[in-house]
Write a structure and sequence with these properties.
By secondary structure, the chain is of the alpha+beta class. It has six helices and eight strands, in the order βαββαβαβαββαβα. Pfam families: DUF1697 (PF08002).
Length: 178
């Protein structure tokens, strides 16, 4: 068995309310073992037979749609992939833990397109591409950030993504290591 983390998108936002206890129960009935949630925003640790993370992500999305009736997706990572995403974030050393985020994407993206956007964006946020994600430092906070609207106006061809701050990612990694 391999230990994985599923980072769900669209859970407990936009009306898609779901208790983590209900999510754990459904996943346990679907042959996911050692199911634990970390922080109440759709972070699920589980054990499963070793298989490609894309297949697990599809299975998780399907299970949640069938059980709870709303569309979601999951990005599934091994412990090493999560640690690598944290390590490659260039803003962890000088940014605030709660303001430095990694956006995990449901599919590959065009790094050149993102870099062109980064070069043209004049906001205070700092952005950097990652391996299967990208990184943001919301220097002045995310609440009033104009980054998301600017990315929509630029019509970036980005797949669905789900963001976690570095504090949460470190907590998840510590839980995977315990």
């Amino acid at each position: 068995m391999t230990r994985y983390v599923a980072l769900f998108g669209a859970i407990n936002v936009g009306g898609n309310r779901l208790s983590m206890a209900d999510l754990r129960d459904v996943l346990e009935r679907e042959d996911f073992e050692g199911v634990e949630t970390v922080v109440a925003s759709g972070n699920v640790l589980f054990d499963h037979e070793d298989r490609p993370t894309e297949g697990l992500a599809e299975k998780l999305g399907y299970v949640v749609r069938e059980a709870f009736g709303f569309d979601t997706f999951a990005v599934v990572l091994t412990r090493d992939a999560l640690a690598a995403a944290i390590a490659e974030n260039p803003f962890t050393d000088d940014g605030e833990e709660k303001l430095v985020h990694t956006v995990f994407l449901s599919a590959a993206y065009d790094r050149d397109e993102l870099m062109a956007f980064v070069q043209s964006y004049a906001g205070p946020e700092r952005l950097a591409p990652g391996t299967h994600c990208f990184h943001i430092d919301y220097v002045e906070g995310g609440g009033r950030s104009l980054l998301d609207p600017a990315m929509r106006r630029a019509k970036l061809k980005m797949p669905r993504g789900t963001a976690r701050n570095i504090r949460s990612l470190r907590r998840i990694l510590a839980k995977m290591d315990s």
